[in-house]
């Protein structure tokens, strides 16, 4: 007799976990071995129960599903993470896939579809919800556009660049942002390298040219 597929539920909504546990409990060959309401508990229970599949929510208090997936697979790489979420936006979908998620389903999926994805994951066969597959295909069909260099700047570097564009000295930038002068110099060096310019003047010109000075 084959061993049942061990499934761990990680979702911060208790009613979702109760519903999933009840539905999956009626599926032959699938066993829910644990439930976690947050990412840290999910990682702890995964180490304890060593599930074959984890059903992972994305938006949770504390550690979100993206970071939980990344850390879980670093510790337990044989596990298959199936994202089960209400979100279909690029900011969540692509990062969790890059973090190692095996399949991606929406919470509107039928119970039979979730069970099918679990069985497929246990066999090493990923399944994407149809809307997810369509978004991914459309993304790769679109021609890639070159991003301007300033898109690589961090939020802090953008703040420093705006002040440079206003003619502030390093000391004035440090006073304005309440940071040390060495930190300012470090940010300026990074800004010049990322923008591909030689000095502060060219950085200021770049900022004005791209509307970043305001």
TrEMBL record:
Gene3D superfamilies: 3.40.50.2300
Keyword Isomerase: no
Signal peptide: none
Keywords: DNA-binding, Phosphoprotein, Transcription, Transcription regulation
InterPro entries reported in the protein's UniProt record: CheY-like_superfamily, NreC/VraR/RcsB-like_REC, Sig_transdc_resp-reg_receiver, Tscrpt_reg_LuxR_C, WalR-like
One Pfam family matching this protein: Response_reg
Protein name per the record: Response regulator
Residue list for modification 4-aspartylphosphate: 57
Residue ranges of every copy of the Response regulatory domain listed in the record: 6-122
Keyword DNA-binding carried by entry: yes
HTH luxR-type domain location: 146-211
